[in-house]
Amino acid sequence: MTRVIPLALGLCLGGSALVAQTTAASVTATGTATIYVQPDQAQLTVSVTTQGATATAAGQQNANVTVAVTQAIASVLGSSGSIHTVSYSVYPQFGNGAQSSTIVGYSATNSFQVTTTNLTLIGSVIDTANQAGATSVGNLTLSLQNPGPSLQTAASKLALANAGAIASGLGRTTGSVISAQQSSAVTPVAAVASTVASATPVQAGPVSVSATVTVTVQLQ
Questions:
Q1: CATH code for the domain defined by 25-38+147-219
Q2: pLDDT per position as a tens digit, 98-111
Q3: Which architecture characterizes domain 42-140 according to CATH?
Q4: How far apart are CA 205 and CA 203, in angstroms?
């Protein structure tokens, strides 16, 4: 027994030394790159709300008006845009006072998003929707279709530079990259629209596009 114990202790110490030798030091750093560019895509929400004595009547009336509105908008968009439904609802309307618990009719609302890559058509789309029977036009935002890979490249270089600065402060240098993660974001701008003029003018502003890269590199 007295000979086995030193051998077991030696093996444990040897294993600890092996772990310490194979665990490499590392540093994690983040880099963020941001640019401001002109938007190339516009989106807005158009809604049609109708009433009827019954849910069926409200829904049918809504369908008729919605078809007219979407067809009118589609004729303006041509091949430079798209329309898709974002929500639809039919709900009862209640009376006032003593009739507050009595259903007096129904309302139906169909909301759809209009997207166009031709920003010169925004005003015409708004006016056309209103003229065709839309009850609400809003949430107009300008954004980018594709931010592009150049931001990721810039963010990666910043992340590596930050890692190098941290390593230098520690008296070390950076080695191979162990891992890298990236995220990107486009901050759309709310366009300013006015219905004072005969054709609705829209003033577009720059879009903020950012990319963030986080890297983990070995320390040498």
A1: 3.30.110.170
A2: 777 889 999 999 99
A3: 2-Layer Sandwich (3.30)
A4: 7
